[in-house]
Specification:
By secondary structure, the chain is α+β, with helices and mostly antiparallel strands. The chain has a domain of 49 residues. The protein has four helices and four strands. The strands form two sheets. It has a two-stranded antiparallel sheet with strand order 1-4. It has a two-stranded antiparallel sheet with strand order 2-3. The longest helix is centred in the last third of the chain and has 11 residues. It starts with a strand and ends with a strand.
Length: 87
């Protein structure tokens, strides 16, 4: 019998890198109070997401992708490999 245990399957977000790409096209992003109200994510939580300190929820990804008019897939980094243990 094979039992598979996946370890370290945390998907990192690429929100900060996508914002830098947008800024390189001439749009300087400086989030203010209206930004946080519009997307429904608080300033503290936004900082945690940008720094990848906390995992982003699918709801948050949707709000961010809608605001920046980018796909949700462009905001997350797919795991390059999974650590699988066979027992």
């Amino acid at each position: 019998m094979n039992i598979f245990i996946m370890e370290n399957l945390q998907i990192k977000n690429k929100i900060e890198s996508r914002i830098r790409e947008i800024e390189n096209k001439g749009f300087r992003f400086m989030p203010g109070r209206s930004f946080f109200i519009e997307i429904g994510i608080g300033q503290k939580r936004w900082g945690q997401l940008i720094r990848n300190e906390k995992p982003v929820t699918t709801e948050e990804l949707g709000k961010i992708s809608n605001y920046f008019v980018v796909s949700v897939n462009s905001l997350i980094e797919q795991p390059k490999h999974m650590s699988v243990n066979h027992y």
